[in-house]
Amino acid sequence: MWHLGFIPIRAYALCIIAGIIVAIWWGERRWAARGGTKGTVIDIAVFAVPFGLVGGRLYHVITDPELYFTAGKNPWNAFAIWDGGLGIWGAIALGGVGALIACRRKGIPLPALADAIAPGIVTAQAIGRIGNYFNQELYGAHTDLPWGLEIYQRIDPTTGLPNELTGIATGHVPLPDSPVHPTFLYELIWNLLVALVVVWADRRFKLGHGRAFALYVAGYTLGRCWIEFMRTDNANHILGLRVNVWTSILVFIGAVAYMIVAKKRGPRELPETLRSRGDERDAVAESPESDSSSSDSAPASPKAEADSPDDGPTVEARDEITVDAGSSGSDSDKPEKS
Fold first, then answer.
1. What is the pLDDT of residue 28?
2. 3-class secondary structure, 97
3. Torsion over CA: 67, 73, 75, 76 (sign)
4. CA-closest candidate to residue 121, choices 157, 89, 84, 161
5. Which partner from 32, 196, 223, 246 sits 20 to 30 angstroms from 291, CA to CA?
6. C-alpha distances in angstroms, 260 versus 103, 251, 254?
7. Which of 93, 105, 98, 30 is nearest to 57 (CA)?
8. Cα 175 versus chain centre, distance
9. CB 80: neighbour CB atoms within 10 A?
């Protein structure tokens, strides 16, 4: 943490902000490439990001209530988001609710938007994991591998006692298990690989109706499951497994099931269905055809002019030709109504 005057600047927060910027930028490009209205993703983010931050905090507090609601703990610290504690599961879930609200306001399908932003989200997660390095958290057991990470003792500045959660590493006294597996680094690399797989599969199979997003979820949870087994930080357990392992398993099954069901919905959404409601009204208002339709003598369309070259037969002559051709009795040969 650094201080800009009296304002604290936290490394983890900078990583999260950088990830959000990358996700919005990449999502905008992918959404526009699919035929969507430019600027839509950043409009959706105005709803999704605050919802996601609240959801991430709620998941952390619900799954680790002993940190805030047991004897000697201050319940108000549940709101101290600057002290750390965000769960990606809650962030995606409640962030999706915010995105759904925004999508309905704009009249666009949420699954199509989710497909566009999927690689950006998992890349943002990778960038956010860099913050775990600055916080010296989410690591594994001891290792002698060259990339093993040195972790130092952290002291609570108010009590002078060791505190791995909120303490500060003021000295360079390594923990007994140091160096350790940098599991956050493993997840960072895994997330980038998932982003590449989603981009490749989306281009190869033209994924639509939320299938690219489901592929991201399945890929992420698959990696998160084995990485959770390597972590040694304190966590609640259910039937001998960490809570996040169970969450990964259940969400993975749900994502795979969704991909199977969504495939029956057919090809990717048509580009015209991705235009925002306001954008459609503006397009109609600015269209020259809408102005000419109210006129009693509308000019001939470009197609009609192209079909009647200057050296071709006159309108009367062509009418005679089409009438003679229609006498064969075949419906398919009848002239179209002009």
1. 97
2. helix
3. negative
4. 89
5. 32
6. 24, 14, 10
7. 93
8. 37
9. 13
Tokens linked to 203: 């281009």
Helix orientation angle between 88-106 and 40-63, rounded to the nearest 10 degrees: 150
Residue in 23, 24, 2 with CA at minimum distance from that of residue 12: 2
If DSSP codes are grouped into helix, strand and coil, which group holds residue 78?
helix
Dihedral-angle region of residue 52 (phi above 0 means left; psi in -120 to 50 means alpha; beta otherwise): alpha
**C-alpha span between 27 and 220 (Å, rounded):** 18
The enclosing H or E element of 8 equals strand 7-9
Tens digits of residue pLDDT in 13-22:
999 999 999 9
- Between strands 2-4 and 241-242, the pairing is unpaired
Q: Which residue, 86, 112, 103, is CA-closest to 32?
A: 112
pLDDT at 45: 96
Residue 161 is predicted with a pLDDT of 84
Residues 6+ apart with CB under 8 A from 132: 12, 138, 184
- What residue has token string 């190869």? 204
Q: What's at 153, amino acid-wise?
A: Q
Q: How confident is the model at residue 82 (pLDDT cuts 50, 70, 90)?
A: confident
Residues 88 and 184: beta-carbon distance below 8 Å: no
Tokens of 185: 């680094």
| Model pTM score | 0.78
Output the pLDDT for position 279: 67
